[in-house]
Amino acid sequence: MARFAIGDLQGCATELRALLARLKFAADRDQLWFVGDLVNRGPESLDCLRLIRALGDNAVVVLGNHDLHLLARGYGADLKDKPGDTLSEILRAPDRVALLQWLLGRPLAYQHAPHGELLVHAGLVPQWTASQAVALSQEVHTALQADPEDFFAHMYGDKPDLWAEDLRGAERLRFIVNTLTRLRVCTAAGRVALKAKGPPRPGAGLLPWFEVPGRASRDTRIVFGHWSTLGYVNAHGVIGLDTGCVWGGSLTAVNLDQPIQPISVPCAGYQEPGEP
Is 0.90 surpassed by the pTM of this model? Predict the structure, then answer.
């Protein structure tokens, strides 16, 4: 059995099929780990959802910010299409309800017990251990399952921007969601800068979340995506897999059970490079 981790799809099902062929993926033998953002911006979001849902237990999926945006649209949030959104086909599909219910059941963080790796879409603030991130993900999952409409009514926003154990209610849930699905950079104290775009800028007082000295999760190998302008990363105990497929980059996988080497297929590019 091999465990293949795969970067952000964003609706690029054709490239996913090409990558699975290159990996020689076998559903009776292998497992796929998806870092989130299965949908949006690319032309085949519906195909991506159907393909991955059909894999059953062979697919481990965590939610990304675009997946949550689809769920917010599907569960009644008063949202219009953002520029570049390609979610309408899913929302009109005859199997829309089954697909959205399946996606709603995915966590924000997953830790593989035998080997210990943590799978998230974006990152962790330096105060969190891997096990704490999983526990906080479960808090979000519980709230999301209990009342999706209320959850999405309060999910959007950039505040608070600093973790505190005594955060409660919507503010606590929003900070957890923002960290696990949107984080790229933060200060050494863990204050997040969610609007920071592009590669990190030296001297700005902000560090990639995984470069913060002494972060509590440094003893856990973390697999993430979300940061296409950063590209592939294998350093600081993390593996970053967003290589900008939808922007004309590549779709990248690694075999987590072998010495880490990226395996990529080229992508056609369906949107102009910009904010993923």
Answer: yes
